[in-house]
Design brief:
With 311 residues, this protein is of the alpha/beta class. The chain has helices at residues 45-52, 74-79, 96-106, 113-122, 138-150, 168-183, 195-201, 219-226, 273-282, 297-310, and strands at residues 6-14, 20-29, 34-38, 60-65, 68-69, 81-84, 156-160, 187-191, 204-209, 212-218, 229-235, 252-254, 259-264, 287-294. The protein folds into 2 domains: 6-224, P-loop containing nucleotide triphosphate hydrolases (Rossmann fold, 3-Layer(aba) Sandwich), CATH 3.40.50.300; 228-294, Alpha-Beta Plaits.
């Protein structure tokens, strides 16, 4: 296997007062993949992106971007990266065309009107090319931020909450663009709270909690590794509480007493289900339906965040 396009080793970031934003993150990102980073606010996602992009200085650790050290060889490393930040920061009085063209020049790229036109057309911004930034909606401004990030033809694109505040149509267009960029070989790292998008779009998913990468893997592998299956038993008659004779299974009572839910590990040698069903018969608890549900990325994410709050 070829070397990763981004290698992050032992990355730490501490702020004044002893706050640890990152606690020794190790992460390899492969060329051409879409990696989604999930995590609650304050988990360290934006700090991680900001350090890789050279905006924030790490306390310790090493980052290689296609072999270039992002501290010692900053210019070469940064030229490979496009960043779409969470905050919309543009000159309100500049036109869309000028804003995107200026960003290309910042990276020392020669003027290329055809390239800028192509980017604007792909982002459905061509008709707005003469409009001033202050005249655009929030969703259109975010498109311009993506156009700016693509203006110097980077091989790596960071999208920090790219669809925040964007309507459904714009969001769908943006994800279509992401697919096209990946098809062209662009490596894409995104943070998002829209878990269904991460589940649909990403090749791999990482979960950041309290400055640590607590889960990382291909979507299916991650769900198989961390996900659980839930058996829902719909009862003939509602019960007020779970009988003592069912205590060992750790059941939950749901649907106003009409259902018992049993969570089990699909990889366990013994799931406990046959014993549970026998015990229900012994206790004369009748049921009319059985259904199972595989945990989604959202279930995994919620459980990890729950662990964080309980810690």
């Amino acid at each position: 296997m070829s070397d990763p396009i981004i290698r992050i080793e032992g990355l730490k970031k501490s702020y004044a007062g002893g706050v640890e934003a990152l606690k020794g993150v190790d992460l390899d990102i492969e060329k051409g993949e879409i990696l989604a980073l999930l995590g609650p606010n304050g988990a360290g996602k934006t700090t991680l992106i900001s350090i890789v992009c050279g905006i924030v200085t790490p306390t310790s650790g090493k980052i290689l971007v296609d072999g270039h050290d992002n501290q010692g060889d900053f210019r070469a490393a940064r030229s490979m990266i496009g960043l779409v930040p969470q905050e919309l920061t543009t000159d309100a009085f500049e036109s869309v065309w000028a804003t995107v063209s200026f960003s290309r020049g910042l990276f020392g790229k020669p003027r290329d009107d055809r390239k800028i036109e192509d980017i604007l057309r792909r982002l459905t911004l061509w008709d707005k090319r003469k409009a001033k930034m202050m005249e655009l909606s929030g969703g259109m401004k975010r498109r311009v931020m993506i156009a700016k990030a693509l203006s110097h033809e980077p091989e790596i694109l960071f999208l920090d909450e790219p669809t925040a505040g964007v309507d459904v149509e714009l969001r769908r267009d943006m994800w279509e663009l992401v697919r096209k960029l990946r098809a062209d070989g662009t490596t894409i790292i995104l943070t998002t709270h829209y878990i269904e998008e991460a589940e649909e779009m990403a090749d791999r998913v990482g979960v950041i909690r309290k400055g640590e990468l607590v889960a990382l893997g291909e979507k299916k592998a991650l769900m198989a590794q961390m996900g659980q299956r839930t058996l829902k038993i719909t009862l003939d008659d509602a019960i007020a509480e779970i009988p003592a004779g069912l205590a060992e299974w750790g059941l939950a009572l749901e649907d106003d007493g009409h259902a018992l839910c049993y969570r089990f590990d699909t990889h366990a040698e013994h799931t406990g289900i046959p014993g549970l069903m026998r015990r229900l018969d012994e206790l004369h608890i009748c049921y009319k339906d059985l259904a199972t549900h595989q945990s989604s990325l959202e279930d995994i994410f919620v459980s990890l965040v729950h662990e964080e709050r309980a810690a």
